[in-house]
Amino acid sequence: MSQPIVTRFAPSPTGYLHIGGARTALFNWLYARGRGGKFLLRIEDTDRTRSTPEATEAILKGLAWLGLDHDGEAVSQFARADRHAEVARAMLESGHAYKCFATQEEIQAFREEARAEKRSTLFHSPWRDADPAGHPDMPFVIRLKAPRDGVTVIRDRVQGNVTFRNDQLDDMVLLRSDGTPVYMLAVVVDDHDMGVTHVMRGDDHLNNAARQQLVYEAMGWDVPIWAHIPLIHGPDGKKLSKRHGALGVEEYQAMGYPAAGMRNYLARLGWSHGDDEFFTDEQAKSWFDLDGIGRAPARFDFKKLENICGQHIAASDDAALLQELRAFLAATGQPSLPETKIPLFEKAMPVLKERAKTLPELLEKAAFITSDRPIRPDEKAAKALDAASRGILKELTPHLQNASWSRDDLEQVLNQFAEQRETKFGKLAGPLRAALAGRSVTPSVFDMMLVLGRDETLARLSDAAGA
């Protein structure tokens, strides 16, 4: 029986969950969930000066909104410092590491001299092969005894085989002189102890992989399958930054993008399944594989994001979409939907979700539901309610009182009324939109009338006609 797949997402809690991190989490989640494996979360909080509980909370909230559930409790890297130190000492015992007593001043002097002589500044410690009997009684670091010749090959499922010359790899510090472990060691120990089989992360970590692989080999541990994903660039081809709108995940939530649309779009950033653009979570879990990840950086495109989100809103289950709308209002600190309006939303949802690309757009289309009498038209809609238009509405109201309130009957009544006045229905639409919704851009007049019902429709028309 093959080993179960275990992936992980390991963010540093020094800020919000950015879009690149969210995509990394998604890829790991899809790969594990599609294969009956585990998706684990580790908070890499070893940098105590920059790590904050607020950032950890923002990361957890971002993952929760995206629907990326992890197995078990989140692991704190800082809390495992004793275990990391234990591994460094084990490597010391086995001869794969050594005590280095070189001071910062000595290392700095070596590098300056090397620069002046135009040779490698890679520090070669004089303590690497020193006799332990001659060790001084002073602070020391524990360094990895890296191989000096040959090559280290990273067999990467995305980048292919990447070769590093060992004479270019340093004897990295594993344990500082104060006994605290370094991040590069902690990552390897945590991944091994958590049973991680696949390390999927940004390709900015590719150089780290060479040094980390040496720790796996020194400990005799299985090396995980590496998959280093290209970074995300802006539309101009440059590394994604704040000027491109490289925002935290919570800001995309606040802009009203639905989580399913966000997942779909992020999955397509750097990975493809034929020409498929729009797909469900179940399809993504079933299709996602490492072979579909490209080597070139992906480009973030807001238009494509909106297009995918619009398709997901249109395809959403009405009740689920209403829940997402309520969560959006809560997350953005807006008033919740009054319970009295919920039945109208449920009735209108098939109409509202057509062609809405974001939740604010959907809410804007629902203005005819959220508004209460008397309807106050906005500036543009008010122009459609001049004296002549109000007269038309007044004349129209009795014709609607006896309508059966089906779409066909309403269309017939309004079209006949337009014919009698020797005009087109389009001429009636503007005043009707203004009267029913207070807007000039709304769902169809018939859809609004059917959702509002006879009594509310006639009352709004009477208000507008008498204004």
From TrEMBL:
PROSITE patterns: AA_TRNA_LIGASE_I (PS00178)
PANTHER family for this protein: GLUTAMATE--TRNA LIGASE, GLUTAMATE--TRNA LIGASE, MITOCHONDRIAL-RELATED
Subunit structure: Monomer.
Short motif ('KMSKS' region): ranges: 239-243
Keywords recorded for this protein, A-Z: Aminoacyl-tRNA synthetase, ATP-binding, Cytoplasm, Ligase, Nucleotide-binding, Protein biosynthesis
Listed GO biological process terms: glutamyl-tRNA aminoacylation
UniProt name for this protein: Glutamate--tRNA ligase
Location(s), subcellular: Cytoplasm
List of residues binding ATP: K242
Listed EC numbers: 6.1.1.17
Keyword Ribonucleoprotein in record: no
Domain Glutamyl/glutaminyl-tRNA synthetase class Ib catalytic: 5-306
Family: Belongs to the class-I aminoacyl-tRNA synthetase family. Glutamate--tRNA ligase type 1 subfamily.
Ranges for domain Aminoacyl-tRNA synthetase class I anticodon-binding: 322-464
